[in-house]
Design brief:
single chain; mainly alpha; 2 strands
């Protein structure tokens, strides 16, 4: 079974054996790039069709069912349409920035996959500060959104870009803060070492971070922030068609529009992979006797389960107003992430003084107590809002 677990590592080494020694580093990088593009490009196609069919079932309609068996060739038809569709650029647009925006969005996201450990010995590159690299390259998405809105020379595009940037910056703060307890307790910024720290078993159950009070709270906060950061429903305000046409994508068509669509899903895949790595044990099995299953299969099983949760949320949760969206981030999610950091500190320093069950109850009680108090405070009735109109 170990050979099956390392089958992709062995395959890569076998292919590199045919490459001259001086060119093996370049060959190794190219093989990793091809593998990442192939795996997540395929995941993009599968997710789009499964999401459309899943949303169809949730909304009591069939979903795509005409192209190919059960409609599963619909992504190929969509790709052909996007590649052949006319690319319309507004006359007054900044054509250079308009062209570069979708590239600036997609390329850094591909780079983020390089540091994710997809299985045992299966990360493209290993950095001591790999999580810093992940967030650094991911921050380019805000720049791409601004470039798209500004270069389109359209007021709806610009308004949509400003809304999108406000949302992404607001939720990037709790997204990063929710990972701090994991970094504190693991004592490292290396994603591979974070996974290794969750590789043990207690009573046959994996010692994943999500099974601790600070880990469970951090996981929920991370998933909420990741949903907003990826512009997924119910936080898909930048694409509120009923309000501002299609947001910053208003003046995009053809293949450039498809690149934005691809970038949104790739961003979702990247933060989902990070959630699996930080909180769900990465490629580690949930139970000791299941260690015989290849590590990469565990990673993608958890990855697929979280993607299904995102699809389910999109089909069931209504969209928020923009003021609710920002208030929820700054007044509720950010304070909870800060409290969770304190809870993680209490968990760590009480390890030598309290039993595990007592520590669990105390830390969970502190977080839930603050959650209740903050919710009650924010729900207090305020003075009625007054509106003034120009005369």
């Amino acid at each position: 079974m170990n050979s099956l677990d390392q089958i992709f590592v062995t395959l890569k080494q076998w292919l590199l054996s045919y490459v001259p020694t001086d060119f093996q580093p370049v060959g190794s990088a190219l093989l990793s790039i091809v593998a990442i593009i192939a795996v997540f490009g395929t995941a993009f196609a599968l997710t789009t069709i499964l999401e459309r069919k899943g949303l169809g079932r949730i909304q009591n309609r069939p979903g795509p069912n005409r192209v190919g068996p059960c409609g599963f060739l619909q992504p190929m038809a969509d790709a052909v349409k996007m590649l052949t569709k006319e690319d319309i650029v507004p006359y007054a647009a900044d054509k250079v920035l308009h062209y570069l925006a979708p590239i600036v969005l997609t390329v850094p996201i591909w780079l983020a996959f390089a540091v994710l450990p997809f299985g045992r010995n299966m990360s493209a590159i290993e950095l001591d500060a790999s999580i810093v690299f992940f967030f650094a390259v991911g921050s380019a998405s805000e720049l791409a959104v601004f470039m798209a809105g500004w270069s389109s020379h359209n007021k709806y595009s610009l308004i949509g870009a400003m809304r999108g940037i406000a949302q992404m910056i607001s939720y990037e703060v709790p997204l990063v803060l929710s990972t701090v307890p994991v970094l504190m307790l693991s004592g490292t910024l290396n994603l591979n070492e974070i996974v290794n720290a969750q590789s043990g078993f207690s009573f046959g159950v994996g010692q994943w971070n999500v099974f601790t009070p600070w880990g469970a709270a951090g996981f929920l906060l991370f998933m909420i922030a990741a949903t907003a950061e990826s512009n997924r429903a119910p936080f898909d305000l930048p694409e509120g068609e009923s309000e501002i046409i299609a947001g910053f994508l208003t003046e995009y068509s053809g293949f450039k529009y498809a690149l934005f669509f691809l970038g949104e899903y790739l961003g979702l895949f990247a933060v989902t992979g990070l959630a699996v790595t930080l909180f769900l044990g990465g490629w580690n099995a949930p139970l000791a006797f299941l260690n015989v299953v290849p590590s990469w299969l565990w990673f993608f099983a958890k990855f697929g389960a979280l993607i299904a949760v995102f699809i389910w949320a999109r089909g069931t949760v209504p969209r928020l107003r923009f003021d609710q969206l920002l208030n929820f981030a700054w007044k509720f999610i950010v304070p909870l992430t800060l409290v969770n950091i304190a809870v993680a500190g209490i968990w760590y320093f009480s390890s030598d003084h309290l039993a595990y069950a007592v520590r669990w109850l105390i830390c969970a009680g502190i977080f839930l107590g603050f959650y209740e108090l903050l919710g009650r405070f924010l729900s207090l009735k305020r003075a009625p809002r007054t509106y003034r109109y120009a005369e």
